[in-house]
Design a protein that fits this description.
This protein has two domains: 41 residues; 123 residues, Immunoglobulin-like (Sandwich), CATH 2.60.40.1890. Helix content is 22%, strand content 43%. The protein has two helices and ten strands. Helix 1 packs antiparallel against helix 2.
Length: 176
């Protein structure tokens, strides 16, 4: 995710002013300790303000089927809601977000334009629920292959993910 950071020059100017002030008053070591502790806190805040993708995989499709189901988990440790607005891959013409609903024993998929992931929470694309619908593969894919995916969010930089193609989906996704 994009994190706005103070410019290097402004950080240097503040550090120099603090060092000059504290050196002038005979407190050079506490100034260095204060500066170091400030940088450590700033670095910790950057490390916590991100999105993490895990368990990315794609269900192997039967021969002749050009659509596949993709799954992954997103951990949002940012302080704001992250909105997933798209996904792309050079191996597919198009990727959509779908959710599977079961009403009166009948399974139906609905397309989702975006996925909102609240701050401090996890979201999973999993068989039988939300999934990536990977449409019109551009090459043959088999179990063991790795597929590059790019996840696009409303704010920040896209995230690159590698998903392994696996054999043996749940029964609810045999049609992909």
């Amino acid at each position: 995710m994009h994190v706005s950071m103070p410019s290097e020059n402004s950080s240097r100017r503040r550090a120099n002013k603090m060092a000059q002030f504290h050196t002038h008053h005979g407190h050079q070591r506490p100034a260095a300790a204060l500066l170091l502790s400030s940088l450590c806190v700033w670095h910790a805040a950057l490390a916590q303000d991100d999105l993490r993708i895990s368990n990315a995989w794609i269900n192997e499709a039967p021969p002749g089927v050009n659509m596949m189901g993709g799954y992954l988990s997103i951990n949002n440790s940012t302080s704001h809601t992250a909105v997933l607005i798209g996904a792309t891959s050079p191996y597919f013409e198009k990727i959509e977000f779908h959710v599977t609903d079961i009403k009166d024993g009948v399974s139906a998929m609905r397309r989702q334009e975006s996925i909102s992931i609240p701050a401090g929470s996890d979201f999973s694309f999993a068989p039988g629920h939300y999934h990536l619908m990977l449409i019109n593969k551009t090459r043959m894919l088999a179990a063991g292959d790795t597929v590059p995916l790019t996840l696009h969010f409303a704010e920040g930089e896209p995230l690159q993910v590698k998903a392994e193609v696996r054999r043996g989906a749940s029964p609810s996704h045999q049609h992909h």
